[in-house]
Amino acid sequence: MQSPRPVRILTVCTGNICRSPVAERLLQAGLDQVQPGSFEVRSAGTRAMVGEPIQPLSADIIRTYGGTPDGFAARQLTPAILKESDLVLTMTARHRGEVMQMDASLLKRTFTIREFARMLEVLEQRDVPSPTSDISAFWRELPGQAASVRHLALPKDASDNDVVDPYRGGQESYDQMMDELAPAILAVLRFARHRS
Questions:
Q1: Rounded CA gap, 152 and 118, in Å?
Q2: I need a labelling partner for 155 at 20 to 30 A (CA). Which of 4, 44, 94, 121 fits?
Q3: Is 62 helix (H, G, I), strand (E, B) or coil?
Q4: Could you tell me if 30 and 192 are in contact, meaning their C-beta atoms sit under 8 angstroms apart?
Q5: Does residue 1 lie in a domain region?
Q6: Is the pTM of this model over 0.85?
Q7: Overall number of domains in the chain
Q8: Considering the domain boundaries, does residue 40 fall inside one?
């Protein structure tokens, strides 16, 4: 029997050299531990610095948390990349808007990563049933379930949906990025572990 294709998760930021590669590589490393081969995490930028490697401070963060920054090249977000994505996790509400402009059919599959993490916490409280055997089908349906509880996962402040852009900033900027990004990544991985 042919194994189902991996669930395709896309992370999106602006230049695709700081935030979205960190999310991509850390989600991939974590999901590979939970369910090897079931997920394919990639990233792209709305104004990508095409072909550039991950910024050194972001690469350090990826290594620190157990991922690898090797073999990365920034790429431009395109309708074709979006079309093949099951779940799109953006770094800011503005990026989410840009995805929607490119492909409005992704409305119920596109979230900021911090927003999606809060939605998963709501779904956890509602005790969403775990997948019986087909992890891929479960995760392809998950964005729709998350979208249905969006109203229960609103932030106190709209800026709480965004991850700060550390580009051209120092260590402090990258530390702030991780303070905002790490809890969201951990929430996704925790949900995946509970549902594996």
A1: 9
A2: 44
A3: helix
A4: yes
A5: no
A6: yes
A7: 1
A8: yes
The 10s digit of each residue's pLDDT in 49-88 is 999 999 999 999 999 999 999 999 999 999 999 999 999 9
**CATH number of residue 96's parent domain:** 3.40.50.2300
**Residue 3 reports pLDDT greater than 80:** no
Element (H, E) at 40: strand 39-45
Q: Phi and psi (nearest 5°) for 110?
A: -125, 130
Within a domain: 48? yes
Whether 132 shows a pLDDT value over 70: the answer reads: no
Q: Please report, as a single letter, which amino acid is at residue 109.
A: R
Domain that holds residue 134: 7-194
Report H helices in the chain.
19-34, 56-64, 79-83, 93-102, 113-125, 135-148, 171-194
d(CA 88, CA 18): 17
Distance between CA atoms of residues 42 and 44, nearest Å = 7
Q: Which two tokens stand for residue 87?
A: 């779940």
* CA gap 161, 84 in Å, rounded: 24
Q: How far apart, in whole angstroms, are the C-alpha atoms of residue 168 and residue 14?
A: 13
CA proximity to 90, closest of 153, 150, 14:
14
Q: Is the four-CA dihedral 34, 111, 186, 48 of positive or negative sign?
A: positive
- The answer as to whether 93 is a domain residue is yes
Interhelix angle 56-64/19-34, rounded to 10 degrees, is: 20
